[in-house]
């Protein structure tokens, strides 16, 4: 994905991985714990490869197959991730695209 924009929230911690003895402990340190009126991350999680493949391999999920940044209160809204066989992927959404409306409702304008 060279050239793809980085869509990580600028408020997320960025600890040195060296002192962490396991992937789960390092992952826990990476989670945003809240602040500045923005709630803590309650959606991120780890999954082993077998569970991930079982849930996502066929594009069958509980959503539309797209993740969006901007929920952190920092427009513009952009596509963060698209599952290839999901409704979003089939419709042609691509990582980094700007979302201008959802169901006919305009997205907030970019911050200046």
Describe the structure.
By secondary structure, this protein is α+β, with helices and mostly antiparallel strands. The protein has three helices and four strands. The protein has helices at residues 23-30, 49-56, 87-90; strands at 66-68, 79-82, 101-102, 105-106. A hairpin with a 2-residue loop joins β3 and β4 (105-106). It is flat and about 45 Å long. It starts with 22 loop residues before the first helix and ends in a 6-residue tail after the last strand. The model is unreliable at 1-8 (pLDDT under 50).
List the helices and strands and how they pair.
Blueprint: H1 23-30, H2 49-56, E1 66-68, E2 79-82, H3 87-90, E3 101-102, E4 105-106
Antiparallel strand pairs: 1-2, 3-4
Characterize this entry briefly.
This protein has 112 residues and is of the alpha+beta class.
Shape verdict: flat
Instruction: Tell me the Rg in angstroms.
Output: 16 Å
Number of contiguous helices: 3
Question: What's the arrangement of strands in the largest beta sheet?
Answer: 1-2
- The oligomerization state is single chain
Order of helices and strands: HHEEHEE
Major beta sheet summary: 2 strands, antiparallel
* Helix content, binned percent: 10-25%
Question: Structural class, judged by helices and strands?
Answer: alpha+beta
Regions with pLDDT < 50 over 5+ consecutive residues? 1-8
Q: How far is it from the N-terminal to the C-terminal residue, by CA? A: 28 Å
State mean pLDDT (0 to 100 scale): 75
Number of E-type strands: 4
Question: How much of the polypeptide forms β-strand, as a percent range?
Answer: 5-15%
């Amino acid at each position: 994905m060279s050239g793809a924009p980085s869509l990580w929230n600028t408020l997320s911690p960025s600890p040195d991985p060296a002192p962490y003895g396991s992937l789960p402990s390092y992952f826990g340190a990476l989670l945003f714990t809240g602040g500045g009126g923005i709630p803590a991350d309650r959606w991120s999680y780890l999954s082993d490869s077998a569970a991930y493949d079982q849930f996502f391999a066929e594009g069958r999920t509980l959503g539309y197959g797209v993740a969006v940044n901007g929920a952190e209160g920092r427009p513009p809204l952009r596509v963060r991730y698209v599952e290839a066989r999901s409704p979003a992927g089939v419709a042609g959404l691509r990582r980094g695209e700007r979302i201008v409306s959802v169901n006919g409702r305009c997205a907030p304008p970019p911050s200046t």
